[in-house]
Amino acid sequence: TKPTKHNSGRKRICCLLTKHIKNIATGTKEHKTKHKNMKAIQFKFTPGDHCIVDDIDKPTPANDEVLIKVVNSALDTAHQPILDKDMTAYFIHKLKEPLYLGYHYSGTIESVGSDVTAEDMKAGRHVFGFLQYDPSQTQGAFAEYITVKHSECAVKPKDVSFEIAAASATESITALQAIRDLGGLRKKDSKEDHQTILIVGAGGGVGSAAV
Question: Does residue 41 belong to any structural domain of this protein?
Answer without folding.
Answer: yes
